[in-house]
Amino acid sequence: MLKLPKNFENYEEARREGFLKVKALKEKGTPVVGIFCTYTPIELIHAAGAVAVGLCGTSDAPIPDAEKHLPKNLCPLIKSSYGFAVSETCPYFYFADLLVGETTCDGKKKMYELLNEIKPTHVMHLPQGQDKDHAFKYWREELIRLKEVLEDKFNIEITDEILREEIKERNRERKILLDFYELGKLNPSPISGHKVNETMEALGFQFDRRTQCDFIADRTRELKDKYEKELKGTKSNRPRILITGCPVGGVRDKVLKTIEDSGADIVAFENCSGVREKATLVDETMDPIDALTEKYLNVSCSVMTPNPRRFQALDEMIDEYEIDGVIEVVLQACHTFNVEAYNVKRFVTEKKDKPYLYIETDYSKLDIGQINTRINAFLEML
Ligand code: SF4
Ligand code: SF4
């Protein structure tokens, strides 16, 4: 019989429901693996018969608990994730059988050491450059090690056949999600960027992936239909914005809603809340471990050095989505995105000749007024 957290009765209703939902899943025998990053080869987790749930925190509520152990001047995403873990307020963390992390940024990799004291945490060592032969070999070894850890933990053999099936299924999901994101290429877009971001975050907490993806596919069809019947030929004069930088789930209202309420449309996300991982499929014809190694090594996050794939993605997306301005959102104390922002600004303004705005923020409400003012000034300039 699985136990609920000691403060369960004091939680608000939605949180209690979340705990009961995950508990029921676990009682049916489905293992839960908590993940934190786009570099995680989810196909291996699915092939082990487990559900993979993203545990990146997007709320400032658990941050005071995190700050009892972690420095204040740390990325809010890391503090929020850790705060949910230590305060036992995240059902997915609480019931996770295993956590899988990667050595991406310094804050995350050191947090995993602390998380390992609460839950078994397997950390994959990610090479920090992509174009060296030995990076491929090293990362491939890390995938094999993860496969062995999952097999041991869940007492299952991950055969090539099962893995190939999971690769196909995940590719099918990627195509559906990419299609949804690419609604932003329509002008005017039939859906707001805020809504896109909210929909995708909710999807991450659904266990019946097939039904949920079918729901997104239906929604995409409806919105395309709406565009054809009601919107086509009525090009919007609202500026079209691309969001780049850190994941933005934790600043959705503070930044995304402010941009759209101030008269612009967010039509593209070049970040982990967007198409960063979805645009490239896993090769279904290769050895499955080789194919996954290649796929995940090529994710274009600023933890890579150099990081040319991010600039290629920005280059293509600014053209394909007919972007009028780029807004880079960097979470406070995220050094890799913060430093890379200088090159992103130069690329956007000099190579693409587009206006660029840099916003550094955290999950608090303290800078709402300042962000409002800066966004409004930027949009007026457009
Ligand atoms: S921004 Fe980088 S470190 Fe963060 S989730 Fe994405 S790939 Fe991982
Ligand atoms: S936003 Fe930056 S600092 Fe925060 S977890 Fe991601 S890469 Fe690390």
What is the helical fraction, as a range of percent?
Answer: 40-55%
- Sheet-strand content, in percent, reads 5-15%
What's the shape? globular
Uncertain residue segments = none
Bound molecules: iron/sulfur cluster
How does CATH name the architecture of the domain at 13-156? 3-Layer(aba) Sandwich
Question: Pairing-aware structural class of the strands and helices?
Answer: alpha/beta
- What is the ordering of alpha helices and beta strands? HEHEHHHEHEHHHHEHEHHEHEH
Q: Number of helical segments?
A: 15
Mean pLDDT: 95
Number of DSSP strand runs: 8
Give the class-level CATH name of the domain at 13-156. Answer: Alpha Beta
Major β-sheet profile: 4 strands, parallel
What's the arrangement of strands in the largest beta sheet? 2-1-3-4
What would you say this structure looks like, in words?
The model has no long low-confidence stretch (mean pLDDT 95). β7, α14 and β8 form a beta-alpha-beta unit. The chain has a domain at 13-156: Rossmann fold (3-Layer(aba) Sandwich), CATH 3.40.50. The radius of gyration is 21 Å and the shape is globular. The strands form 2 sheets. The chain has a 4-stranded parallel β-sheet with strand order 2-1-3-4, with helices on both faces. With 382 residues, it is an alpha/beta fold. The protein has helices spanning 13-27, 42-47, 63-66, 76-86, 91-95, 106-115, 133-154, 160-181, 193-203, 209-231, 252-261, 288-297, 308-320, 335-351, 368-381, and strands spanning 32-35, 51-54, 98-102, 121-124, 240-245, 265-270, 325-331, 356-361. Bound molecules: iron/sulfur cluster (2 copies).
